[in-house]
Amino acid sequence: MKRDISVIGGADGPTAIFLAGQLGSLFLIPALVIMGIFYGIYFTKMIAQKRKGIQTRQLRQGKEKAVRTIEIILSAATLLIVPVELASIVFEWNHMPSPVRIAGVVLGLIGDLVFLIAVLTMRDSWRAGIPETDRTEFVSHGIYQYSRNPAFLGFDLMYIGILLMYFNWILLLFTIWAAVMLHLQILQEEKYLQTVFGEEYLAYQKGTGRYFGRKK
Known about the structure:
By secondary structure, this protein is an all-alpha fold. 66% of the residues lie in helices and 0% in strands.
């Protein structure tokens, strides 16, 4: 575990180690807040939709084998990364200097904001996974004018933010795993949306970036 001793000025020996430990602990609360906000949004939305009789989480249910396999692995990746993130935070597993960690805080908060806006914009059309029977509204306004997948983008930004704050090789592997599975899920959902919404979605796809940006 590498601590931020280089930023302590002229301190050395036990004093430097103590100050480095104090500096490292400053990132603990922001990291937990970022995770708390993100998963708070996720579960609050899920509970709110459940009260309306809407099943938000539709991963792994039925579906053809390829789709189900991706959703099963995605569920495992997004579940297992959480204890790895928490262990990295609690035990201060970090190999990054303070400026990079501060950038991670900013990126994580942006991820929370992007995810919140995406969920609010989708209203009751938001689902986790490809719905088999639900017919949701096609949403292309608000933040969806600039990203076809802002909720997934929010996940990625939050994951990368925590990684930069507590960089270690184990967390890096889990972050890559989760990001890759989220991308594969996006590809599956794009096929589904093309089937359901046809030309309307194809036109939207041509004008809006998968993660971010407008196309000419």
